[in-house]
Design brief:
This protein is 76% helix and 2% strand. The protein is mainly alpha-helical. Strands 1-2 form a two-stranded antiparallel ribbon. The longest helix is centred in the first third of the chain and has 49 residues. The radius of gyration is 23 Å and the shape is globular.
Length: 241
């Protein structure tokens, strides 16, 4: 009785196909690892651009919610990059551009410019964010120099939602935030998602507030969160706190 064995070429082809699938899967996973944080930065950028479009159409309430989403994404992208060991120059540039769009341009439009002085204030706010992102470096580990613009944006958004867009309060808050961003004071790198458990709980509460809680409660939550970082940075938000 003759035993007919399959051609050796079939086994080789099957082995190559299996190995190529393994390589393809590994490459896909590596691509996800490298670009997960960049995807969050891109999502933040989309939030900022969408917020700008809403403000231009005078849908300021929607703009505020989009900026709060961008705030949460910005806190997450750096943590994801560090946890996945995927920090890169491209990622840093994408993060800065997304921050400038969301927390500079989009936030400045909440000031609802109605004249030359309002326009100058909005320009000053954008320039303060630009300066903060481009030129301020503390050269001290885990420390920022100048107020990080996401917290300034969160404060303005909270005030807008709480007051229904009171122009005078927004102007005063914007001026104060400009001064905090350019005065070169030191602020801790809070690392909300890489630090103590209570900070992670604060972050999770921020997500739940955006998704589930009434506008007033969410506004108060983010106002307290951002104000505590702005006015008591090292007492509360230091890595050792």
């Amino acid at each position: 009785m003759w035993m007919v064995s399959p051609p050796a070429g079939i086994f080789q082809y099957t082995k190559k196909l299996f190995l190529s699938k393994q390589v393809g899967r590994a490459q896909a996973l590596e691509s996800v690892r490298k670009n997960a944080a960049n995807a969050l930065s891109m999502a933040n950028l989309i939030m900022g651009l969408s917020s700008i479009l809403c403000s231009l159409n005078r849908h300021y309430h929607h703009s505020c919610w989009l900026l709060l989403g961008g705030f949460l994404l910005d806190l997450a992208d750096g943590a994801v990059a560090r946890q996945l060991n995927a920090c890169s120059a491209l990622g840093a540039k994408m993060d800065d551009f997304a921050d400038f769009t969301s927390f500079g341009l989009a936030t400045a439009l909440l000031l609802q410019t109605q004249g030359v002085l309002d326009g100058l204030l909005a320009i000053a706010y954008v320039l303060a964010v630009f300066t903060r992102l481009c030129f301020f470096s503390s050269e001290i580990p885990f420390t920022y120099r100048g107020l990080p613009c996401p917290y300034a944006s969160s404060l303005l958004v909270s005030i807008f939602l709480l007051t229904g867009g009171n122009i005078m309060l927004l102007r005063v808050a914007a001026i104060v935030m400009i001064l905090f961003m350019v005065d070169r004071g030191f602020y801790p790198h809070d690392k909300v998602l890489e630090s103590q458990l209570w900070k992670k709980v604060i972050y999770a509460g921020g997500i739940l507030a955006v998704l589930l809680l009434p506008t007033t409660v969410t506004s108060i939550y983010y106002l307290a969160w951002s104000a505590s970082y702005i006015f008591s940075p090292f007492a509360i938000w230091s890595c050792k706190a």
